[in-house]
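hi! just following up on the protien thing from before. the input was this:
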Amino acid sequence: MRKFVRPLLCGMMVMALLAGCSKKEQQETTKGETTGTETTTGETTQAESQEDINPGEITSLGEYKGVEVTRMSTEVTEEELKERIQSILDANPEYVAVTDRAAKNGDIVDIDYVGLKDGAAFDGGTAQGYKLELGSHSFIDGFEEGLVGAKTGEERSLNLTFPEQYHSADLAGQAVVFEVTVNGIEEKRDAVLDDNFVQRMSDFNTVDEFKADTMEDIEAEKAQMADQQLENDVILAAINNSQFSLNEAAVDQQYENQMSYLTSMIQMYGGNMKEYAEASGMTEEEFEKQLRSNVENALKAQILMTAIAEKEGIKVEDSDREELAKQYFMEVKELQDAYGEDAVDEVALNNKVRAFLKDNATVK
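and the predicted 3d structure came back as:
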């Protein structure tokens, strides 16, 4: 089937690179020209000093080689295969041209339209060949309803009014006319798993080939998940075997950074933290507690891997930087320019230590 590249980036990797990038940008700002209210004296800003907070130290490095971990099963069940195929079918319905009836809710209409206010076309109100699903509520009230019953080739004038709270002040609450031409109508039908669907959606010819390829995809995903889980479990085991003295100021800073990032992302999609926590099966208080615990473990992992690298003499080489850059589909120089050389080396070293710990674990 067609392959869609969806690189999975380690959360620790992203956090480390972003932290390096943030520090690099702040240093450049303090040394450059004035931008808004930022200082140009070359002195360390408050934000920059926060980036330099010591995360803490390891007071006792426990056993980290030979720790016992269990690798999750990568077996794919028939039920998992069935669910994956159904999700592919649901995401790829069939669209059939309609020539013997008028448009109804659920149909896709291909339209040209011009929006007129006081007889003149307004900005953003014109399109050609636009495909609109009737009943999707993508347009203002009355637009889609006004096209139900229209036939291919028909022209309709829709007298509508924009909502009072519309984002454009020029159009909010204003009466307009949309001149619409229906170029074509398509009916959306549920996809059926047969050879025709396989040939439409992939490079294969038969259902059996499609199923086998889908099975391979799931197996590869599970193998990758198993590797990531194994690495995480080895690190957690080594953390539990060791003792740390964390800097609470560093924990607070990273916690606030993560909470701020999550909050902005959730709000971007119209949600709030309470809903996000409930979707994760937790109360908001439980979620915040879990996030802080995750931050503490991330800092412990960073301290741990630095200590192990020093004890084992593990160092970053060019090949490690190149491997990291490949994961981002970039050249090493591009990655260093984007995030800073120190951040790239830090993540490359973390990856090397993670691999060392996994290779030296006792896997059940």
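The chain has eleven helices and nine strands.
The CA atoms of residues 93 and 191 lie 5 Å apart.
cheers
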